[in-house]
Amino acid sequence: MSIFFRRLFFILIIAIVMNTCLFGMAAATGPDIIGNRLILPSPIQSGETSEIQDFIKNQGSVPASSFLIEYFLTSSPEQTKDKILIGIWEVSGLKSGAGKSGNTSVTIPPETVPGEYYLIRWIDAASYISGEISSNNLQRSKNPIIITTRKTSGLHGIGTFSAGTAYAGDQFPVTVLIANDQNTETGPVTAHLFLSSTIVPDQSGIDLGIVSIPSVAAGEEREIRNSVYIPPDTLPGEYYLFTSLIPVDMITGEAPSSEYWFNEDPIQITNSPDHPVSGTEIPIPAGPTSTGADVVGLETILPDEAFIGGSFQITDKMQNIGGATANIVRVGYQLSRNIDGTDGEHLGWWTTMNLKAGQTISEKKLLGVSSAFSPGLYYLTKTITITGSSTENTKDNWWVSNRPIYIRYNPADPIPDLTHVQTIWPVGKPGESVQITDTITDIGRACATGVSVAYYISPYSQFDAATASYPGVWKIDSICSGEQKTEATTVTIPSYLSVGEYYLYSVINPCWFLSECGEGSPELDTSNNINAGIFNVAR
After folding, report:
1. What's the whole-model pTM score?
2. Which of 95, 276, 411, 473 has the greatest number of CB atoms lying within 10 Å of its CB?
């Protein structure tokens, strides 16, 4: 082969390789959602509802639009057939490089066979994201989840106390007495209450709602007082009050008596002129007898602070003050820097079903603070929506906390924390070049890179970049934990300054204090980033 052809062949090979690389790079552009961490419940009983906490990140080069993450169970780490869908996380979108965490309610079907299962996380299962890199969208948990047979929680009912008469359409106070015969504390349990015209339980009973039972210590007896709601269409007559530690539709004739019980003395249900009942002699007014579902928030208990990259717990309560059952109620939680709650960042959901008219429920929720948050004061907001309800009253469906939550970095995390050691202030004349000798150190637990120490001259004793002159900056490539750095930085005194006394500011990472340049690099505490001194302009 001649030299010419050998060179031509070599050039063609290089072109093919470069073309392949370029096309490979082009194919890698776009959103790329990955899962970082999963917190899974285990063990969990068949038929039980629990929560998983998921942490995701968009490591792609462009933002992702709204998408779904579906969660499945499979009995084998390799098996993708016969997956059991247990929950869905609706993600509103994710910026390039941003992370997000969320809590998703998952329900294990009652017919699930006990054993070891693996969780499958399927990102963008519905292919909503245009151009999303899907090669890593199907991920399985490293460790299995243990599914057990549903059983009583160690609790048994002593009795449920109530009045002997009640009105249809009214609240009905009850007291549930529970005992724990186990040697260990039980977790929270829900008691389901319903009315039956006979002492044989079946699925035709009249559902009254639930009573939440908190943890019960070993050997303890606990009284739980609450009110349930008797539906307005309940016909007058005698009914037996049943209390069950399992959902009504799971009660069978073979269920242990400790899982449900009834009051031997029946309750007399009558109607009231304020609550006409269908099928009685009291005339029913023309038109609808209900104003529709109307769910409002009653109380939200929140912490004073939370850590970036961690989570915090709230206790929330809501009530359906309307006249109809709310089928699916969703409460969305956000954090906002604004006191009016606008432009909030979504944290998670609380979803509940079949909230009866007059019923009040409470829930403890774990909300995650993603690494995309920066330190500061945030207000918790929540929005309440009812799926498929056209008659819902939305007047009180928006809520903003009356005090902020302080979001900050966890001191135990590897975060840098820069502070001044000493600043030697110069003396000079307008137009002169002088030196500022500054020493800073990192008292945090990690290195800081790309650090700027900016200098400002101002006639005011409070730092405000808008009213100050900017004579210079000291740039530091990196500074690590325990390290000190000293630099003499030459700055020029503005020529328009008159003779007299001014304030000179040394500001570490000034972007924390200037809205126009975005957020500063991560830092544990910025309260010690500004050092001020007197600067004399000589004659």
Report:
1. 0.40
2. 276
